Amino acid sequence: MTSGVSKNKIKHFSQNSKRNAHLYCITIGLFALVAGLDPAGPLFEGMSPTDRLSPDDANFVDAIHTFTKQHMGLSVGIKQPVAHFDFYPNGGTFQPGCHLMHVYNHIAQYGITGITQTVKCAHERSVHLFIDSLLHNDKQSTAYWCNDINTFDRGLCLSCRKNRCNTLGYNIREEPLPKSRRLFLKTRARMPFKVYHYQFKIHFINEIQGKKIDPTFTMSLTGTKEDAKNLPITLVEGINGNKTSSFLITLDTDIGELLMIKFKWEGTAVWKNIWDKFQTIIPWTKGNRGPGLIVKTIRVKAGETQQKMTFCSQSIDNVHLYPAQEKTFVRCEDRFRQQERK
């Protein structure tokens, strides 16, 4: 942790017992700072602050929740907020690389104890996340204040205004609050765990009136440092009429400043047949391809840099998107925002 406290002043990194509560715990000084690493859930979920880890246990308390997935009403780690800042990597329920689908690999490697290894993987991820913050000073993970993981997955919480974000692990910004604050982030499956968070907001116009569609898209990003190709995009809700969709995309690498977006509707023969059918039913002007999706702009916010960008179709005269078609979007002037400023 920070506040001018050097790493060699970490007094304890232990499996502690607070009123018999299993807790990986890091303390600095005489309980000036306490970090709970996936504090125990069974028998302590819903208990009073005197019977579990709480903000009253030190001048500053933070907690990392990595295995709160419930089974038969119980979870290994506690889900409720127990600190000044409570971090929920990947929602806190389970962790990348620790999914139950990997239990067979663990059994093959460890025998019947492989089941235990699967559980330990998510529970002990909190420890590895903290260690990661010590080992990779140039790749600190940022988390964002949000109500729940569903809202976070829509990219709606990537704000650092008024201390709405903080750094996970050793370099956390110590700020005791009167009320616990829940922060969310995504991570990789292995060290370094840091990913880069982006919110994308796209305004669609579905020209087929009264017809709700559930298309699948892919997106390729071009940055000043690297490119990211064929990122799958699945919208939470279908598109009907005018609709603005917001979603979160994370990248394992720093692509630098975003310069260009290629957005593709992953159409199939079925979609093409639907479009051909509507084109024969509805009389369109000769030469037109018929109804499609109109995509004029894509707005992007980078969580780590807090930069906001707007991208417009490279072809100003053609903003339609059809199944199996890819369109290119480039940085453009956000006229709507300029009007708002006036």
From TrEMBL:
It is found in: Secreted. It catalyses: 1,2-di-(9Z-octadecenoyl)-sn-glycerol + H2O = 2-(9Z-octadecenoyl)-glycerol + (9Z)-octadecenoate + H(+); 1,2,3-tri-(9Z-octadecenoyl)-glycerol + H2O = 2,3-di-(9Z)-octadecenoyl-sn-glycerol + (9Z)-octadecenoate + H(+); 1,3-di-(9Z-octadecenoyl)-glycerol + H2O = 3-(9Z-octadecenoyl)-sn-glycerol + (9Z)-octadecenoate + H(+); 1-hexadecanoyl-sn-glycero-3-phosphocholine + H2O = sn-glycerol 3-phosphocholine + hexadecanoate + H(+). GO terms for cellular component: high-density lipoprotein particle. Residues 196-331 form the PLAT domain. Keywords: Glycoprotein, HDL, Heparin-binding, Hydrolase, Lipid degradation, Lipid metabolism, Membrane, Secreted, Signal, Transmembrane, Transmembrane helix. One of its GO terms (biological process) is lipid catabolic process. Pfam families: Lipase, PLAT. One of its GO terms (molecular function) is phosphatidylcholine lysophospholipase activity. It is an enzyme of class 3 (hydrolase). Its EC number is 3.1.1.3, 3.1.1.5. The chain crosses the membrane at residues 21-44. InterPro entries: AB_hydrolase_fold, Lipase, Lipase_hep, PLAT/LH2_dom, PLAT/LH2_dom_sf, TAG_lipase. Its main location: secreted. Belongs to the AB hydrolase superfamily. Lipase family. Homodimer. Catalyzes the hydrolysis of triglycerides and phospholipids present in circulating plasma lipoproteins, including chylomicrons, intermediate density lipoproteins (IDL), low density lipoproteins (LDL) of large size and high density lipoproteins (HDL), releasing free fatty acids (FFA) and smaller lipoprotein particles. Also exhibits lysophospholipase activity. Can hydrolyze both neutral lipid and phospholipid substrates but shows a greater binding affinity for neutral lipid substrates than phospholipid substrates. This is Hepatic triacylglycerol lipase. It comes from Callipepla squamata (Scaled quail). The lineage of its organism: Eukaryota, Metazoa, Chordata, Craniata, Vertebrata.
